[in-house]
Amino acid sequence: MNALSTFVATIMDVVVLAARQAPEPEDVKAGWLGFAVWLGLVVAVVLLCFSFVKQLRKVNFEEKDPDAAEGGPERDTDTPNPHGSAG
C-alpha cells in the first residue's frame, strides 16, 4: 500500500508542476498552421463523403434468392427435409 501511495503522490507532483509551467492562455494561439491543418481535414472528410456516396450508388440493393436463380441447384421434392419442415 505504501508503494501505491508513493506512486500517486509522485503523479500528483508531476501534474502540479506541469500546471505551474503551462503558458498563459493569451500566449497560446493556433495561428495559420493550425487553421491550414483544420481546413485540410475538412477537405479530406468532404472528399471521403463524396467517394462513399459514389460507392453506395454502385451497390445493387435487390436481394436475390440463390435457389430461384437460373441454373441454380434443383431440390428433390421427394426426399424429406432434414430440418423437419415441408417444402
TrEMBL record:
Keywords of the record: Membrane, Transmembrane, Transmembrane helix
Chain residue ranges for the region called Disordered: 63-87
Keyword Transmembrane helix: yes
Composition bias, Basic and acidic residues: 63-78
Residues annotated as transmembrane: 34-53
Keyword Transmembrane helix: yes
Domain of life per record: Bacteria
Name of the molecule in the record: Uncharacterized protein
Organism: Nocardioides iriomotensis
Upper classification of the organism: Bacteria, Bacillati, Actinomycetota, Actinomycetes, Propionibacteriales
